[in-house]
Design brief:
The complex is a heterodimer of chains A (about 250) and B (about 140). With about 250 residues, chain A is an alpha+beta fold. Chain A has 1 helix and 13 strands; from the N terminus they run βββββββββββββα. Chain A has 2 domains: about 190 residues, Immunoglobulin-like, CATH 2.60.40; about 45 residues. Helix content of chain A is about 15%, strand content about 40%. In chain A, the strands form 2 sheets. A 7-stranded mixed β-sheet of chain A has the order 1-13-12-6-7-8-9, with no helix packed on it. In chain A, strands 2, 3, 4, 5, 10 and 11 form a 6-stranded mixed β-sheet that branches. Chain B is built from 4 helices and no strands. In chain B, α2 runs antiparallel to α3 and α2 packs parallel to α4. Chain B is elongated and about 75 Å long. The chains are: A alpha+beta (about 250), B mainly alpha (about 140). Chains A and B meet through α1 of A and α1 and α2 of B.
């Protein structure tokens, strides 16, 4: 447990950027953005800065998880061996300090060999406590001067879990994106910025009337075909009997 | 010297030839109908969405899904038209345009849930019909 005042959120920010999440297929959370498979192609891509650190930010969702990827470049030797990226999640769109109750952190233990850990923290009165149940997945990788962090955060299925911010479809949540270089939360945070992520609503599960009509038509076609096929097979056997009768 | 007159022998040979052709045609009717039935079941499973293993994964699997659906319908059409054509020949009637149209419409009707399957099947069936028309004309 880390008992450190949760001060970094009080830093001043300009206009909060609002990002709209799009639906897409789940990417592989491995710290690599696979351009060949285009796993993040359907994501909303934004570029903004954590104070003076420019980052590339992808956000995407499916009906289970919210996926976030963060990528940034630092010159050779400037990546700290215990670098981390954290997502401090508010339980609403509120940017008030006490509403940021959840933290998902990918912490490198040794960046030179790509050793990292994913942590899920609950924040109460600025105190970071590790969750009893870890929700979500994270992975990171350093490739040359570029480090990539990938998060997968469950949507809605943390209902009843007081240790996590419960994300729901169609709602907006404040995320504090943090960068730091020592595994101390929040004192290790060097740079951060708050953004708003707007989760898309789930597409209606009710099929449209057109789809119902088309499906019914398709079933009718297959039924007619089945009946005609059965009748045709019957006629073939009748033909065989007729041929045999004529032969006799 | 043969006891059967030459004319009778010719008739016998012709009769045997006819029976052999008839047997072949009947076998073709049965086998084509069975194969048509198999492709009807494959088409039913994929085109109504009972089997969705290839659907909505990525573009490659969607392509496989559409290909399976189109091929199933086209082979169904091809085998059924062969079977019905031979059946009509056995009963001494030609395959008329009404039967051909019915089979064509029922094949196209299977594709109604997917615009890509509809387009490719329409194109494929048009090619088969043109081919059959040319073969008949030559």
């Amino acid at each position: 447990m880390t008992i450190i005042p949760f001060l970094f959120i009080l830093k001043g920010y300009g206009t909060t950027e609002e990002i709209y999440s799009k639906f897409g297929d789940s990417p592989v959370i491995d710290g690599y953005i696979d351009l060949f498979s285009g796993e993040w192609n359907k994501a909303t891509k934004e570029e903004f800065s954590l104070e003076d650190l420019p980052i590339k930010f992808w956000v995407m969702q499916n009906d289970i998880n919210l996926y976030i990827s963060i990528q940034f470049d630092l010159e050779q030797g400037y990546h700290n061996i215990t670098e981390f990226i954290g997502l401090i999640v508010s339980n609403s769109s509120s940017e008030d300090k006490e509403d940021f109750i959840d933290a998902k952190i990918i912490q490198f233990s040794n960046i030179s060999v790509d050793e990292f850990n994913y942590f899920d923290y609950y924040i109460n009165n600025s105190i970071f406590s590790i969750d009893a149940e870890i929700n979500g997945v994270g992975a990171a990788n350093l490739d040359g001067t570029t480090s990539t962090y990938e998060f997968s955060i469950p949507i809605k299925n943390t209902l009843g879990n007081v240790e996590d911010a419960v994300l729901d479809y169609g709602n907006t949540y404040a995320f504090n994106i943090t960068y730091g270089d020592v595994p101390l939360y929040p004192n290790g945070v060097k740079k951060s910025t708050i953004i708003l992520i707007n989760l898309s609503s789930l597409p209606s599960s009710l099929p449209s009337l057109t789809n119902i009509i088309l499906f019914a038509f398709c079933i009718v076609v297959f039924s007619i075909l089945g009946i005609l096929y059965g009748f045709y097979i019957y006629k073939i056997f009748r033909l065989k009997a007729n041929i045999n009768r004529v032969k006799r | 010297m043969s006891k059967i007159p030459k004319q009778q022998e010719k008739e016998l040979k012709s009769k045997e030839q006819y029976r052999s052709n008839e047997k072949f045609a009947y076998r073709s009717v049965i086998i084509s109908a069975i194969l048509g039935g198999i492709f009807y079941i494959i088409s039913l499973l994929f085109n109504t969405g009972f089997i969705t293993i290839f659907m909505n994964k990525n573009i490659f699997w969607n392509f496989i899904d559409v290909t399976v659906k189109v091929i199933a319908i086209m082979l169904f059409f091809l085998f059924m038209i062969t079977s019905v054509g031979n059946y009509k020949e056995l009963i001494g009637k030609p395959l008329n345009w009404k039967e051909l149209l019915l089979l064509f419409l029922l094949s196209i009707g299977q594709t109604i849930l997917n615009i890509w399957v509809f387009t490719f099947t329409l194109f494929g069936l048009a090619i088969i019909l043109i081919y059959l028309y040319i073969v008949q004309e030559l």
